[in-house]
Design a protein that fits this description.
about 220 residues; Peptide Deformylase; two-stranded antiparallel ribbon; binds zinc ion
Amino acid sequence: MQIVYYPHPSLRFQALEVKRIDSNLRTVVRKMFDLMYEARGIGLAATQIGLPLRLFVINLEADPAAKEDEFVFINPQINKRRGSDTDEEGCLSLPKLFADVKRPEAVVIEAFDLDGQLFEMDLEELPARVVQHELDHLDGAMFTDKVIDQHRDYVDPVLKVFEQTFRQAQASGAYPNDETLINTLREIATSGGVPDSFLTANLAPPAVEIPAGLLRPRRGRNSDG
Ligand SMILES: [Zn+2]
């Protein structure tokens, strides 16, 4: 399993509900935390590893030792939103790109945990932002769709570099084409679970080199998800 980069079709895929919590799903969740820590993120959605199921993980401390801060959200749903807040975001599927996004400042979210228990959280500020960013991933939305107008001209050329890199890797045969990727996504999504074959798949994303002049430094603390 690997994190996929934009514009992998999984990142534009409408994920479907998890229908069974079994040992394969537990294995995937553990791996998602590991990949997230490796990439120094604080959240990771299943679609970001090419798994089109409604599931994401967070650890706002980004610390593998802080097990008490690990949360798994299965079939999540936001029930209330209030306020509005603009802050910086980053994404593990778009490494090194940071830009401001306006979102509701607080949300009430409910989801199932790995034991199949329904729980609810009333979140504001960073935690609220992270769960909204991750839930967007499950609906095929990226934070770059929502950046504030002032950051649009900065973000678009960076997206173009990611797109060119990905399409070149596909054209050279180093990465599967969209049709193949989408067929696999459809099969997994409709099954509602993690097939054995997914556990052993290990396709590295094409390495992206973004010209330094296109990037601007992160302003705030780590908020990649
Ligand atoms: Zn993201």
